[in-house]
Structures are given as structure tokens and as C-alpha cells.
Q: What sequence folds into this?
């Protein structure tokens, strides 16, 4: 593999807005979890099956794994997004297409970061509601919604990337 160009990408206002929204959502998930922690019973749902029904239970401190994992993924992807020249691409990266390909790829990662935080936030929210007897689980809608949130932008940017040659 030949050396790919290393470019400094300029962020648009939309890119900056998505980043800010992502950070605000991280803080919101933490606040949601911390505020509700004391009111949780000692045993809470820790795993859900494909139908959104709780099928695993554990200590209430395990609710903290949701904002921790969301934060680690968000920060990790934020760091990774600074190095688009190391990503895998469906097309060969050249000096002519590098800027467009890198921009598309970093936008995809930026959107996926926000989507991941939304998903973990919804799991935390529904887990808190379930633990407090307000719902029966995540709901049958959760898995299809999650798959749509992840795969629709992924397919969109994959198609966009293959057209940007």
C-alpha cells in the first residue's frame, strides 16, 4: 500500500455542531445515570434479548457501565477521527480524492459517535425505567431502531464514498 496523503481537515459549522451535540449528550447520559442512581433497586437489568426483554440482572452499580462505555467509545472515535489516512476505504485514496474521502469518512465517524451515545443513553433511560417498574424492557422497537440508526448512515456514506473516486 502506498503512502496516503495526510491532510488537515477544516471543520464546517455543521461538523462543529455535531461534535458539540455529541459532548452534550455524553454529559446528559452521565447526569441521567447519576441523578437516578440512588433511586435504583439493588438489582437491575443488565442485558436485554433481541425482543428488548431483560434476560440478565446484576448489581445497580452496573448502570455506570453504560455512560463509561459510551464515553470511552466517543473519546476513542474522536481520537481516531484525527487520522483519516489510516481508515479503510472502498476506493483507492489519491491526492485528487483524499480530501473528499477523508471528509466523508470523518463525517460518518462523527455521526456514528452521536448515534452510539444516543443508543447507550436510551439503554440507560429504559433500564432506569424498567428497574423502577415503569416499563417491561427496552421495547420491541429498540433493536430495529438501533440497526437503522447505525446502518442507514453507514450505507449512505459507503455509497457516497464509492461515487467519490
A:
Amino acid at each position: 500500500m502506498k503512502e496516503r496523503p495526510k491532510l488537515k481537515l477544516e471543520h464546517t459549522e455543521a461538523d462543529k455542531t455535531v461534535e458539540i451535540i455529541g459532548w452534550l449528550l455524553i454529559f446528559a447520559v452521565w447526569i441521567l445515570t447519576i441523578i437516578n442512581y440512588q433511586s435504583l433497586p439493588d438489582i437491575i437489568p443488565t442485558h436485554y434479548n433481541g425482543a428488548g426483554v431483560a434476560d440478565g440482572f446484576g448489581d445497580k452499580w452496573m448502570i455506570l457501565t453504560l455512560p463509561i462505555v459510551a464515553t470511552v467509545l466517543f473519546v476513542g472515535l474522536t481520537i481516531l477521527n484525527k487520522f483519516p489516512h489510516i481508515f479503510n476505504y472502498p476506493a483507492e485514496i489519491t491526492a485528487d480524492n483524499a480530501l473528499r474521502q477523508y471528509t466523508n469518512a470523518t463525517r460518518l465517524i462523527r455521526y456514528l459517535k452521536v448515534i452510539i451515545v444516543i443508543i447507550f443513553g436510551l439503554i440507560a433511560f429504559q433500564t432506569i425505567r424498567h428497574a423502577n417498574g415503569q416499563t417491561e424492557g427496552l421495547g420491541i422497537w429498540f433493536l430495529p431502531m438501533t440497526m437503522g440508526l447505525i446502518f442507514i448512515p453507514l450505507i449512505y456514506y459507503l455509497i457516497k464514498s464509492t461515487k467519490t473516486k
